[in-house]
Amino acid sequence: MRAFNDEALKVPCVWTVSAGPTDLLSAESVSLEVGVRGHLGALLWVSYDQRLVPKDGTNSDWQTYHLAGLHDMHLPPHAEVPIEVAYQALAEFLVTRARPTCVEWQEAEQD
């Protein structure tokens, strides 16, 4: 992800990293959506009954990132954070498979 987020990156991109059952409607299935856009990153925590964004996220409006570089994905206000915070949250999730504690979370605005 770091290598992808170099100066050649032309569009904001996002990836979904999941843990738990492959049935996304399962209460045990969780995912962390992680975006990169130069010096900014984006985070969205998704579980069966929650959609959370960082409490100190910087964007006040919805932002468009591209899932797999192809499909528009609209991230809610407060999803964007400094890129190093996004990398840290991803690293923690990959180890714990739980919502990262390095970020303070709040409910995300609904579309």
Number of domain modules: 1
Helix content: 10-25%
Distance between the termini: 27 Å
Mean pLDDT: 91
Shape: globular
Our Rg estimate from Cα atoms comes to 13 Å
The amount of beta strand, in percent, is: 35-45%
Query: What low-confidence regions span 5 or more consecutive residues with pLDDT below 50?
Result: none
Description:
The structure is a single chain. The protein has 111 residues and is mainly β. The protein has one helix at residues 83-96, and strands at residues 13-19, 30-37, 40-47, 50-54, 63-67, 71-75, 80-82, 105-107. Strands 1, 2, 3, 4, 5, 6, 7 and 8 form an 8-stranded mixed sheet that branches. A hairpin with a 3-residue loop joins β5 and β6.
Summarize, please:
This protein is 13% helix and 40% strand. By secondary structure, the chain is mainly β. Strands 1, 2, 3, 4, 5, 6, 7 and 8 form an eight-stranded mixed β-sheet that branches.
Layout of helices and strands, plus pairs?
Layout: E1 13-19, E2 30-37, E3 40-47, E4 50-54, E5 63-67, E6 71-75, E7 80-82, H1 83-96, E8 105-107
Parallel strand pairs: 1-5
Antiparallel strand pairs: 1-2, 2-3, 3-4, 3-7, 4-8, 5-6
Supply database-style keywords.
8 strands; 1 helix; mainly beta; 40% strand; 111 residues; globular
